[in-house]
């Protein structure tokens, strides 16, 4: 069975229709929304590749520019060679400061080899480039270019970054960076509800993988949040109090730690490990404050992250998982998962998606990847007073995907002072009409029509 939205005769959504939640994972496709005049507008998914830049700290040498870029296989060109499919590309990274100088730059050539054509078209598979460059305080412009060898394809993006740490007498924190371990050892997971603190002597992060887009999607792992600290002065012992907090989308604190850090070095790299099994799916915010008691020196940083999949979906949050899946599946299809024992639920989840895999020749499941892309989008685009998948727009998007056309209208026969948005699905011959009253910004489904 294909994901609803691929079929011609998709069911209509009527006003007031109660539609359950949806599923989770991370296809890490960078779709966002903007809000203008209280209205949600979708921005087309035209980002050529994912890119993030942040400040890191090496405990010995000082500040680093961390560059993380990931390109989907579908953006590359694969050629059949020796029974396999091969794509080659170059990655150019150029870094300039505000004066136009080029303190850093490099080019790398990469080759990807896969066994099947299906893998070359998968929305889930990406090639990732991660690099770090020493950098002093200042404003920087980082440009990344992917050049597909043997073709005219070239993709580029730029980001700006401010490296802190140059002011005398001030304490500085780098932006938090999120990781997961490559492998989990028995007893390694942190205690639930705690932020487990440690100072890093090894800043290479061997054995850990940086989360592109700060999106967590794993049944068995845990989250590591790393930051760097620069103390004022020179020599002697350096000490401060760190206060870290994780809050959910409603501003409620879900984890907290207050910790003294003492080090003989002016530069320190530290991390907090967090067990996220029990967190609900959604957006979270991590904040960290460093303060030198009695000196008035204080600095803070914060960074959002997303939980799209965790072990709690098979345990305490299992009813939510069933509600999510019921949006795209009927009761008969969900029965094996509903009746499974807690220990068998993960296996039934896998079987559920295997049955929806259009081809079973490899491990790539396009329906699952598309489903996850839609869930990710609803989280970013429609989360205001409630999670995005609970809104009418989120439900329609998850069920049918990206509209072919969107039209905005202000005021008509329904109500004066209301804003409207019409979503057209040409392949389904459907238009969904949403209304936002008095510029409130949240849209509600008021009608579904055939055209």
Mean pLDDT: 80
Distance between the termini: 26 Å
Number of helices: 6
The general outline is: globular
Number of separate strands? 25
Total separate domains = 3
Q: Do you know the CATH topology of the largest domain?
A: Immunoglobulin-like
Question: How much of the polypeptide forms β-strand, as a percent range?
Answer: 35-45%
Describe this structure in words.
- The protein is mainly β.
- 13% of the residues lie in helices and 43% in strands.
- It contains 6 helices and 25 strands.
- The strands form 6 sheets. Strands 11, 12, 13, 14, 16 and 19 form a 6-stranded antiparallel beta sheet that branches. Strands 5, 6, 7, 9 and 10 form a 5-stranded antiparallel beta sheet that branches.
- Helix 3 packs antiparallel against helix 4 and helix 5 runs antiparallel to helix 6.
- The radius of gyration is 24 Å and the shape is globular.
- The relative contact order is 0.17.
- About 10% of the residues have low confidence.
Helix and strand arrangement:
Elements: E1 33-36, E2 39-42, E3 50-58, E4 62-72, E5 79-81, E6 84-97, E7 104-114, H1 117-120, E8 126-134, E9 138-148, E10 154-163, E11 172-173, E12 177-181, E13 195-200, E14 208-210, E15 215-217, E16 223-230, E17 238-248, E18 253-263, E19 267-274, E20 282-292, E21 297-309, H2 318-325, H3 331-339, H4 345-355, H5 366-382, H6 392-400, E22 405-410, E23 418-425, E24 430-437, E25 444-450
Helix pairs in contact: 3-4, 5-6
């Amino acid at each position: 069975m294909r994901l609803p939205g691929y079929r011609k005769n998709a069911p209509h959504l009527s006003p007031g229709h109660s539609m359950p939640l949806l599923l989770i994972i991370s296809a890490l496709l960078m779709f966002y929304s903007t809000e203008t005049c209280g209205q949600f507008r979708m921005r087309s998914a035209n980002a050529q590749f994912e890119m993030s830049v942040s400040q890191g700290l090496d405990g010995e040498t000082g500040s680093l520019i961390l560059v993380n870029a990931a390109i989907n296989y579908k953006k590359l060109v694969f050629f059949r060679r020796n029974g396999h499919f091969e794509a080659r590309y170059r990655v150019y990274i150029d870094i300039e400061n505000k004066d136009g100088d080029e303190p850093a730059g490099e080019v790398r050539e990469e080759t990807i080899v896969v066994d099947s054509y299906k893998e070359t078209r998968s929305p889930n598979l990406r090639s990732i480039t991660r690099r770090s460059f020493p950098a002093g305080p200042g404003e920087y412009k980082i440009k990344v270019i992917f050049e597909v060898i043997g073709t005219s394809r070239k993709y580029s993006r730029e980001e700006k970054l401010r490296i802190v740490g140059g002011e005398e007498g001030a304490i500085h924190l780098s932006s938090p960076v999120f990781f997961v371990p490559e492998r989990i050892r028995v007893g390694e997971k942190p205690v639930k509800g705690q932020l487990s603190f440690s100072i890093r002597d090894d800043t290479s992060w061997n054995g850990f993988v940086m989360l592109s887009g700060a999106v967590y999607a794993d049944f068995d792992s845990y989250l590591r949040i790393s930051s760097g600290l620069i103390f004022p002065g020179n020599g002697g012992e350096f000490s401060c109090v760190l206060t870290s907090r994780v809050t959910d989308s409603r501003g409620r604190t879900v984890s907290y730690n207050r910790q003294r850090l003492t080090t003989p070095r002016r530069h320190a790299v530290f991390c907090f490990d967090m067990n996220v099994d029990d967190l609900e799916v959604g957006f979270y915010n991590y904040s960290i404050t460093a303060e030198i008691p009695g000196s008035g020196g204080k600095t803070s940083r914060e960074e959002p992250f997303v939980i799209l999949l965790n072990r709690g979906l098979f345990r305490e949050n299992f009813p939510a998982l069933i509600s999510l899946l019921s949006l795209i599946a009927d009761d008969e299809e969900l029965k094996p998962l509903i009746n499974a024992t807690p220990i068998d639920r993960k296996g039934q989840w896998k079987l559920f998606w295997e049955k929806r895999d259009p081809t079973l020749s490899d491990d790539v499941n396009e329906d699952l990847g598309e489903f996850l892309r839609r869930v990710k989008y609803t989280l970013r685009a429609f989360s205001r007073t409630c999670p995005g998948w609970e809104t009418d727009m989120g439900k329609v998007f998850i069920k049918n995907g990206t509209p072919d056309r969107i039209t905005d209208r202000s005021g008509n026969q329904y109500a004066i002072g209301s804003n409207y948005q019409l979503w057209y699905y040409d392949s389904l011959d459907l238009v969904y009409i949403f209304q936002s009253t008095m510029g409130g910004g949240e849209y509600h489904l008021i009608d579904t029509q055939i055209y």
